[in-house]
Amino acid sequence: MRYGIVLTAVAVGSLVAGCGGGGTKQKTAHSSSPSASPAAATLTEAQARAVFASYEKVNNEANSKVSDALLRQNETGPMLEVDLAGNKRIRAKQESKIKPFYYKSPQFFIPHGVSPAWFAVLAPVTTGDKEYVVFADTGGGKYKAAMGAWLAKGQQFPSIARGADGSVTAVTTGPALDVGTRLSSYLSYVAARQKAPEGFAPGPLTSKLGQRWAKDVYKINSGNRWRGRSEWAPRTQPVYALKTTDGGALVLSPSVQALVYTAIQPNVWYKPPTDFYGLGPKRYYHRFRGEWLWTFATHVPPQGQASVVASGVHAISATGS
User: Fold this and answer.
1) How far apart are CA 296 and CA 79, in angstroms?
2) What is the pLDDT of residue 12?
3) Domain range list for the chain
4) Predicted structure pTM score
5) CA-to-CA separations, 48 to 69, 78, 118, 132, 252, in angstroms, rounded
6) How far apart are CA 205 and CA 187, in angstroms?
7) Among 91, 130, 177, 203, which is least packed by CB within 10 angstroms?
8) 302, 233, 25, 79 alpha-carbon torsion, rounded to 10°
9) Which of 199, 274, 211 is nearest to 26 (CA)?
């Protein structure tokens, strides 16, 4: 995954409606799960290391060439969607090319008996940030990077349960798998200044993220020129969950944040955050919808509040008139 900087507080941008305005760049966005299957092939750690090394090599080449074709060879799902949008912005000269990156001392988590097969990696990159990445079998033993998230500052990666052979256990049933749906609802409520459902520990990727957007939405709506909202919705892709040593789960899931505004006065225009430049025009006069694709890694304990420990985010679309 190329996009997704460790987030202490997301820079949501200074959105201004009316006769002028601008935005600051954001610093980088399920109830189903892969089913258990005794026939699913299980990789050895050596094989997983080879997949991971190839991913690093091909991704750096794709970044250097701004190549969609190479990304498609190497990625799938939300990660591919995010990176294709990034390439579009790079070609429009709205985003810088990605510098080479290299991983150090990766830890591998290879569950047995899941189909389609998948495995996860936690590894620091040369910047010192830690990325959590899932690789999924896309057919015929061809693994591609599917989703990833970056450990947030001050957050701890939960301890993953291991068997005597070093394998980990995929969580394929239970309420933990719905945490992405519950998190999307929680963030949407907070951003709307409404009482949010309980169940999430406060932090940079929960209460603070929603509160920053609540302030931003209030600023736009209070101008009485535009009316809108920001809300999150879970994606339908499978979640990837591993059993933790406390009997809970670490769940990686995607969500889309939509920023939706409609003009309520004539002769006004809206300039969205610069994240969306290159995906659509820089000004909108009647309506605007922009979307960020988030990936959240959430630790769901057997009891108590869930903690969102890692995330990745990038703008993926901008539409309107």
Assistant:
1) 12
2) 37
3) 16-320
4) 0.89
5) 23, 20, 10, 14, 19
6) 9
7) 91
8) 80
9) 274
